[in-house]
Automatic annotation (TrEMBL):
It comes from Oceanobacillus bengalensis. One of its GO terms (cellular component) is cytoplasm. It is found in: Cytoplasm. Belongs to the SUA5 family. SUPFAM superfamilies: YrdC/RibB. This is Threonylcarbamoyl-AMP synthase. GO terms for molecular function: ATP binding; double-stranded RNA binding; L-threonylcarbamoyladenylate synthase; tRNA binding. Keywords: ATP-binding, Cytoplasm, Nucleotide-binding, Nucleotidyltransferase, Transferase, tRNA processing. L-threonine binds at residues 37, 69, 123, 143, 183. The keyword Glycoprotein does not apply. It comes from the Bacteria. Required for the formation of a threonylcarbamoyl group on adenosine at position 37 (t(6)A37) in tRNAs that read codons beginning with adenine.
Length: 341
């Protein structure tokens, strides 16, 4: 056990806290910090021993590579080589923001960041606390989501604390994150960019800038091996089983009734549009728009614990725009296992 230092940077960015947290990172320690998507667990991406602490704290499989976070485009280009021309266009449009570019690594980052791959995922977050931290420490920071591997990603400092207190050196509490789902991971090593993980930047937005964008076929079926190693793991699992109902409010209610008749205590996650049409033991509205649903999704998945309820029933949402990322996470949360490869 380590004592985890917690800094509050909720209202105004406290530069003393940023300076101290940056020094922790420069000294090879782990610090969790908010980004616009979810909280990340950071460590010096150039130091193998620092990065190893991330894998240990999260219980993360060693073959799942991490994203390197930097403050500027110039810093991003220092970590990669053979960059296709369209990438600059993407960066100028979407970064800083919720997008990660997979590019050829030039070997500056430690081997365990890329899990031995020749490529590296790089991202420029837009959250003011993340940006202040990255500028202050002036090194690339490897940072996966700051949760125990397999659990829903953290969108509040409390989620991080619940999972990692005593296992990490520090936590910058910047309040709830905004986007709510992780960055879009996009393979930019080919002529046409390929979405490996849908996220905060939508396919529609990407196509407006670079024309055709492909999808990793593994996103649509369970047969192929995903190109983003992390997409194959057990992920986003709530404390109790989750059932996704693709159907009308009436069909959702029928599913609830059936579970209750079987003696189960049922929690329901729905948009505010249908919250008035369902009845269950616990009901949580995730918001009205798809952006709001994305923002509140992981908090919803973490809210219901064993002992309180036996099952969570969730509405299936439209897959347009950010709905694609939301449904990708919900399908995983419902299946617990996408593939066993
Ligand atoms: O929004 C986010 O991306 C958050 C915040 C903290 O930045 N980070 C995050 O990291 O979600 P993580 O480690 O939980 O997810 C990274 C995903 C994994 O599925 C991983 O396999 C994939 O990106 N990935 C990383 N590097 C890769 C590479 N070189 N090739 C293919 N996939 C890669
Ligand atoms: Mg993660």
């Amino acid at each position: 056990m380590t004592e985890t230092k917690r800094w509050n940077v909720n209202d105004d960015i406290d530069y003393k806290a940023i300076i101290e947290a940056a020094q922790f990172l420069r000294d090879g320690m782990t610090v969790a910090f908010p980004t616009e998507t979810v909280y990340g667990l950071g460590a010096d991406a150039t130091k193998n021993s620092a990065v190893a602490k991330i894998f240990k704290a999260k219980g993360r499989p060693g073959d799942n590579p991490l994203i390197a976070h930097v403050a500027t485009k110039e810093q991003l280009f220092k970590l990669v080589e053979n960059v296709p021309a369209y990438v600059e266009n993407l960066i100028d449009t979407f970064s800083p923001g919720p997008i990660t570019y997979v590019l050829q690594s030039n070997g500056i980052c430690a081997d365990n960041v890329t899990a031995g791959l020749s490529t590296i995922g790089v991202r420029i977050p837009s959250h003011p606390v993340a940006r202040a931290l990255l500028k202050q420490c002036n090194i690339p920071i490897a940072a996966p989501s700051a949760n125990i591997s397999g659990k829903p990603s953290p969108t509040t400092a409390e989620h991080v604390w619940e999972d990692l207190a005593g296992k990490i050196a520090g936590l910058l509490d910047g309040g709830p994150t905004g986007v709510g789902v992780e960055s879009t991971v996009i393979d930019c090593t080919q002529d046409i960019p390929i979405i490996l993980r849908p996220g905060g930047v939508t396919r529609e937005q990407l196509e407006e800038v670079v024309g055709k964008v492909a999808f990793d076929p593994a996103l649509a079926n369970n047969k192929e091996k995903p190109k983003a190693p992390g997409m194959k793991y057990k992920h986003y699992a709530p404390d109790v089983p989750l059932v996704l109902v693709e159907g009308s409010p009436r069909e959702i209610q029928e599913t609830i009734d059936k579970e209750q008749q079987a003696g189960k205590r049922v929690a329901v996650l729905v948009s505010s549009k249908i919250v008035g049409s369902v009845n269950a033991d616990e009901i949580l509205s995730l918001g009205e728009t798809m952006n709001e649903v994305a923002t509140h999704l992981y908090d919803g998945l973490r809210r219901f614990k064993q002992g309180d309820v036996d099952i969570i029933i969730c509405e299936a949402f439209s897959e347009e725009g950010i709905g694609q990322a939301v449904m990708n996470r919900l399908r995983k949360a419902a299946s617990h296992f996408v593939s066993e490869q």
